[in-house]
Design brief:
The chain has 431 residues and is of the alpha+beta class. Helix content is 28%, strand content 23%. The protein has helices at 26-29, 51-59, 64-74, 113-117, 124-130, 169-183, 235-243, 251-266, 309-314, 317-329, 333-348, 421-428; strands at residues 3-11, 21-22, 35-42, 84-87, 93-96, 102-109, 144-150, 156-163, 227-233, 274-282, 300-308, 364-368, 386-389, 397-402, 410-416.
Length: 431
């Protein structure tokens, strides 16, 4: 498969924007210094009898100039994305709001949408084809990259690479909704809130909780070869999984408990050993006072759930789901402030930069996109038919997502070592 770039440009904000250094919080600095690659697939619209006007509209399907102009306008309220990563006083990373612009690429592919998206699997190859690549995520790198790829079938893939220090998933979809709304000719939605000092550490720092998930020793596992598969959880299977949990168990807790059990089976983990689940919690509404609804940055705190493998396998599924629920529920204002202060002390000791990126084989990390507006990305030619990460970054990581329609299956994108796949498939689907 080949992709040829036919246009590459920097798109600057359409108006003059503030020029200053933007301070980054400890939660911003605790994420990997990489660009997060996402891909949106838009199938070619079905032909109809709409006449000449509709044919003209079809001829302008994903007109690059329209997307480029809307991007320039979106970068006015989201002006940090037009800046560059920089090193500020004391060596602390910050965003230099220079207004230089986001990278915008138009490309043509020699393959069809079905060849890639019918059974899409995130991979380095998918990222190479569909998302711009930055050699490094270190300063002074570009922060926002977009590629619009016209496929041989007439469909379009839009790949985005946004630097993780600039935003979390909620922030990414906030930006996409603004960009797509402007492309449809709508007025900009609510302005993003950029002041990240709301998450500044206390003086002196106070750490009443333990935070092993942020320990420099936690993510120092060895990289292992892995492949990513998409596992559909159709409504009947989802209902069965939730029925085995307590009434009111969330889809995330129930599906993650089921996934955790299948992983322990597939990897043949010793029953007496510990297995740990890394869970993320959106803190926007958990702080007192809450963060502004449009807070643009990283507002995710992580925690670890530690359980004996034997308990994951032998206890009722509801036991595991309840442990997950308890971990997510305990993330309140006091816990978040403790995390921020812990990271402050860790950075002062110089250990934060030494953290690796790979979990031990006994562990699992599950990110939820449930309830996020990932399919509200309509540039004016319809909603995407598929949205997913273009690449995963380590074995044992998973995303739980919902399809474009409410009756669609929940999907689990899971990265696992190839030798465990067959056993995992059987365990996940109850064979």
């Amino acid at each position: 498969m080949k992709v040829e770039a036919v246009e590459t440009a920097l798109v600057a904000p359409s108006e003059v924007t503030p020029r200053h250094a933007l301070w980054l919080s400890n939660l911003d600095l605790a994420v990997p210094k990489t660009h997060t690659p996402l891909v949106y697939y838009y199938p070619k619209p079905a032909p109809s009898d709409g006449g000449a006007a509709e044919e003209e509209e079809a001829g302008s399907f994903f007109e690059p100039a329209r997307l480029r102009e809307a991007l320039a306008r979106a970068l006015v309220p989201f002006y940090p994305l037009a800046g560059r990563l920089a090193v500020g006083p004391g060596g602390r990373i910050e965003i230099d709001c220079t207004g230089e612009g986001a990278l915008f690429v138009v490309a043509r592919a020699d393959f069809t949408g079905d060849e890639v998206f019918r059974d899409f699997e995130p991979s380095p190859e998918a990222r190479r084809l569909l998302v711009p690549f930055a050699e490094s995520g270190d300063p002074p790198c570009v922060l926002a990259m977009v590629q619009v790829t016209f496929l041989r079938c007439g469909g379009v893939a839009v790949g985005t690479g946004m630097h993780h220090v600039t935003m979390d998933g909620a922030g990414a979809f906030q930006f996409i909704r603004t960009w797509t709304g402007l492309a449809r000719g709508e007025a900009p939605s609510a302005s993003p809130f950029h002041d990240r000092t709301l998450l500044r550490a206390r003086s002196p720092p106070h750490v009443p909780f333990e935070h092993p998930v942020y320990s420099p020793s936690y993510l120092n596992g060895a990289p292992r070869p892995f492949v990513t598969r998409v596992y559909a959880v159709p409504p009947k299977l989802l209902a069965d999984i939730k029925a085995r949990c307590a009434p009111g168990a969330s889809t995330y807790c129930a599906v993650t408990a089921h996934l955790w059990r299948a992983m322990c089976v597939a990897r043949s983990l010793p029953a007496e050993s510990d297995t740990r689940l890394r869970v993320p919690a959106n803190i926007r509404q958990r702080l007192r006072p809450p963060l502004p609804a449009t807070y643009f940055g990283n507002a995710i705190v992580r925690d670890l759930v530690t359980v004996k493998v034997g308990d994951v396998l032998s206890q009722p599924l509801g036991f595991v789901a309840e442990r997950i629920k308890r971990a997510v529920s305990r993330v309140d204002d006091a816990f978040v402030r403790s995390v921020v202060d812990y990271l402050e002390l860790e950075s002062e000791e110089g250990s934060q930069a030494a953290r690796g990126q790979f979990m031990p084989e006994s562990d699992l990390w599950v990110v939820s996109w449930l309830g996020m507006p990932i399919y509200d990305a309509d540039f004016g030619w319809g909603r995407p038919g598929f949205v997913a990460p273009a690449q995963m970054f380590g074995s044992g990581t998973a995303y739980v997502t919902q399809g474009p329609e409410k009756d669609d299956p929940v999907n689990v994108l899971f990265a696992l070592e190839p030798e465990y796949l067959q056993c995992f498939d059987k365990a996940f689907y109850g064979e």
